[in-house]
Amino acid sequence: MLNKRKTKDLFFQIITYGAAFFSLVTLSLIVFYVASNGIKLLNIDLITNNYQAFNYIADTREDQVLCNCLPTIEIPDDSYYSNRWGIALTDSTDLLGKNIVEVYYIHPNSPLNDLINKGTGEELLHLDTDYSIIRIAYDGSPTSLSRYGAELMISDLDNQYDFRELEFTTTGGGIRGSIITTLYLIVLTLAFALPIGIGAAVYLNEYAKNNRFTRLVRSFIETLTGVPSIIYGLMGLAVFVPFIVSITDATGGSIISGAMTLAVILLPVVIRTTEESLKVVPDDYRFASLALGASKSQTTFNIILPNAFPGILTATLLAIGRIIGESAALVFAIGTAIKDDISLTGQSTSLAVHIWSMMGDEPANIELSTTIALIILFIVLILNLSIKFISKNYMKRFGVSA
């Protein structure tokens, strides 16, 4: 009988350790894949630059004077300089991982500092460093294209005294707008979800009687956690989007309607996590407070809630993680348009929806998608460590039990 029990215990231990090992390996493979593919494009420009790039077509001025000058800085070996035009170009890759010809340096006397705009908008244009040149068209000579590289483009320029058109583009491909949108969603969603969720948890655990009605409410709350998020997105499209359109200048999905939809998604998580943290506070605290003459409300808000603070922080962390990672609901509630000018009543994309948009391209931009995923993982890690640090210091400072 003893050997049979040991065999059974060993069997369950093997299953437990095997499941834990499988989970660890799977998570490690995901992190390795995201890190190995995403680290290539990870840089500060990706985070701070706009997504939209603007193309311009320009021509030289009639009174142009060629530079015919040496550079005022040292040009690296991987860049190519034209003395005639006073410009240095280099082969590079943009924030989306595509090969481009980038402007490395322009001499102060270069005629490319003052160009005539052949399109709409400003009358005069000028090249700037980090802009990329798409093509240079000449009269009587083949067009220089970026796909042939910077060296050949400089060689063509050195053989020309004029050109018909120069097409260049400003820096784009950044995710600044999506980061700002994600931060807005975090703040607004928590502002909507936390007061309602914590208040509901306090009522259910501290004030409500344990009867059929409260058990039914808890059952509904637990059921809501299993509803697919895309259904919440349809609800947001049908309810919150028209509501926000009717009271603001929004014309469709917006950050506010997206935050309200996310708040509904998060309410079950916040309520259940907060209620569990209230349950673990010892009843002796309640009895002692009431015995000293404190009212029910004073006991709840001055004794119980402070001791449940670490659990509430956990609920907040889970909520933030869900906000950052949610995409299906936001596709309907906020839209999929990647914007650089962010407003609370306008459409834009969170980081997760930005990944969805990149993977919908033909071909899918896997490198940029994994880079954004790496940023999301980093943000979640920082938030996790920060909340654990705050919770630990709070308990140590105020002597709150975990």
From TrEMBL:
Lineage top rank: taxon: Bacteria
Any GO MF annotation of the entry: phosphate transmembrane transporter activity
Residue span(s) of domain ABC transmembrane type-1: 179-387
UniProt-annotated location(s): Cell membrane
Membrane topology, as annotated: Multi-pass membrane protein
GO (cellular component) term, any one: plasma membrane
Keyword Transmembrane: yes
Transmembrane feature ranges: 12-35, 183-204, 224-245, 251-271, 304-324, 368-387
GO biological process, one term: phosphate ion transmembrane transport
Sorted UniProt keywords: Cell membrane, Membrane, Transmembrane, Transmembrane helix, Transport
NCBIfam families: 3a0107s02c
Family note: Belongs to the binding-protein-dependent transport system permease family. CysTW subfamily.
Protein name: Phosphate transport system permease protein PstA
Organism: Peloplasma aerotolerans
Gene that this sequence comes from: pstA
